[in-house]
Structure formats: structure tokens, C-alpha cells
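Slide 14.
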Amino acid sequence: MSPAAPTGPDDGAVDPGEDPVAPTAPESTRRSAPVAGGLRGLLASSTRVTIATFAVGLVLALRDIYIAAAYGRSAEVDAYILALLIPVTLSQVAGGAMRSSFIPAYVKLAHSPSRDRLRAFVESINTVTYAALAVLALVTFFAGPAGVGLVARSNESLGNPALRTLVYLLAPLVAVRGVAHLWVAFLEAEGRLLLAAVNRATVAIGSMLGIFFLAGRWGIYGLAAGTIVGMAAHAAIYAGALRRIGVSLAARWHGFTPEVRRVGPQYFAWLLSSGMTGTTLLIDNGMAATLGEGQVSALNYGYRIVVFAMALGSAGVGIAILPYATRLVVEHRFDEVRRTIRWFLAIIFVLGGTGTAILAGFAEPLVALVFERGAFAADDTVVVAGVQAMYAFGLPPMLALILCLRVLSSLERNDVLPWVALFSITGNVIFNLIFMRTMGAAGIALSTSVVYAGTSAVALYVARRVLAGREAAAEIEP
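Slide 15: predicted structure.
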């Protein structure tokens, strides 16, 4: 993630992937221009990203239909999901930390008079990130089988000879997905929000092609091969987009500049927080594995339709809000930050509540429509629908949590996030143990929703306190 001086198209036309709230003004005016479009521009941008995410979600749903039809709710799918756990968790933790710590620093430097400082910052971050991801990929390759064994000790899939091979095959995804997260963070900071949303379909298309061409001969390995090829194409598209707008991908160490030193604590605070909350994926799947064969698959299938709705909302909230809120903070427009929070919370609970009612009330027919074909039988529909209904209750609080975390990152207060994460992970384990005893995998889903509600309330309180403190400090600045 290393930009040369990022610029728009030479002819001055608006790039199709460009966002109206992004820093696209000429360099002479970019540093002092107010946030373009204001809240109305942000809402328009969020709407476009949401629509694009909806289209991508249809592709992701089609991928899940392909998987369900080809493999059903089987030990083979359990093995694939378990093998994917560690690379997905590690790359998501690292990627979330990149987005939430690097984008605010990037936006601030884009407002400064020196483009050389921006280039030095990005190239230094590239150097550290590439090296760290390479190490993580190697660790995953050599220690992955043992790690999967720790989180799913009693699952029958551990006896599946495909599991170890799948762990080895999918280990490189730690590096590939991590680099993609890094590059998309800079695309978002430069305002290329639509590309960041649309390109997610590439991985799903690769997975479907793997099933279509290879599943008959290679079984579950066909899905794994398609996932790898799709992820590589996903990262390559981001790389091409960055080069086109003048962002360097080179890794060069420019030393511990003030910007690098400032972003370091923000990165590691978010990394710690994400690492803690990211373990909930391992915990939930590991605890589901103790419930017997097919329960891991039920938990994941039950999440698929809900995550489609979550992706729509989180794309509209999470992608656009961070660079926008950061520019408001840089300009000391704290009332606008509060107004943005109020508007988005109202939208979240109206639209999110509607989504919850639909996903929970029509869970069984939705699951039957999407998954019930091939190896996925009517009995599977009943189990998965129960899981989906419980996950659906977490939709509004999850979106509110994303909003609050992005505001805290824009204020460069990621240091409070580990405490929020500690609250979340503790509640996750406690409520899993309470609900899974009587509800099985659906109890784990309900636990997730309850924890989202509590954590979002805590995060909102903290965000308001931090915002008030920052505003008071700004008033006494000379």
C-alpha cells in the first residue's frame, strides 16, 4: 500500500468507482476543502455501495447454493470450513486492523502539503505488512493442522484424511487475503468504494468454477482450488486499480517516521481487539463441533442468508463512514459527527429491524428456497432455519457496533477497543454455554445476537464519551 501521488483520470471525468465524499479535489485545494457533499453525499455514497453489495451478495448466494447442492451438510464440508478457519480468521484480523488504523492516517496525510510523506508512509507500511503476512502464511502451513485440532477436538471431520490436505492447500490464503485487505484500504481512502464492494464477487466466482469443473473429479478439493484461484484474481484486480490511480505497490522502508510511529499503537490496539473478537469464530465453530457431525455446517449455512443482509448494511455503514468521519474530525466538525451517528442509528434500526422480521419470520421458506436441493434435504432445512432465525436478531445491533467502532477509529482511539472486545468474547463464551445445551447450534447463534446487543451499547457509550473529550480538547487548542 504505497501511493505515488494518487490522481484521478487525466481528462477530469469522474471515475465510476469514485465516491463524492472522497478526497478527489485538486491537490492545491484538497487539504482545505470541506467534506464534499456533506451528510447527503455520504448517504448517497452508502446507498450506491449497498446496491453494489446486494448484487455481489446474489453471487455469493449462488456460490452457497452450488456448495449445498454439490456437498450438502456433510463431513466433507465440515472439513473445508474447519481448514478455512485459521487463514480466514488471521487475514480478517490483520485486514480489519489495516483498514481502521491506516485509513485515518492516510486521510490526514492527504490533507497535508507533502505528498512525499504520504508515499513514505505507505511504502513503509507495505514493507512491514508483506513481511508479516509471509510469516503468518508459513506458520499456518506448518501449525495449521494442530490448530484445527485444538478448536474441533471431538468433530468427526478430524478423522477425515482430506482435512490435513485442505489446511495445507488453503494456508497461502492468509497472505493473499491479507494483501487484498491492505490494498482495498488504500482504495477506500482514495474514494474507490464501489470497486472495493464489487470485487468480492471474484472469490465466489472462482469457487463456483472450481465446483463446476473440478468437483466431479476432485471432490472437495475442487472447491478449495476454485477458492484459491478466485482469491488470487481478487487481489490482482485491486493491484491493477491501485497502479492505475498512481498508487505504488512497492515495499520500501523509510524508517520510523512520525506517521508510522503514530499509526503503530492504533494498529496493534485494533489487532489485539480483532484478535480477541476474531476468536469467536473459532470458539463458535469449535463448540458447534462438540454437538456432532453436521452441526458446524448447520451453523455456517444458517449464517449465510443473514450475513447477506449484514453485508449490505455493513458495506453502507462501514466502508463509507471511516474516511468521511476522519475528515470531519480533522476539520474539528464534531457536531457533524454526532449528527451522522444519529442519522445512521435511525436508519440502522428501521431497516435492520425490518430485515430481522423477514429473516426470522420466514426463515424456513428462505432456507428451503436457497439450499434445499441435491444433497441438502428437508430435515437439513428445519435445522438451518432455526439457526438463521436466531442469527437474525443480531442484525441491527451488529450494524450499530460497526458504526461506533468506525467513529472511534476516526478519532484515533483504537486503544479502547480491546476492552470492548474483552466484554464481547466473555459474553460469547458464557451465552454459548447457556444456550447450546438446550438449543444446539441455534443456541450458539442466539448467543451471538445477544452479545452484539450488549457490545453495541457499550461501544456507543464509549464513542460518545471519547467524542466529547476530543471536542473539549480542540476548544482549548491555540
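Speaker note: The first strand starts at residue 2 and ends at 3.
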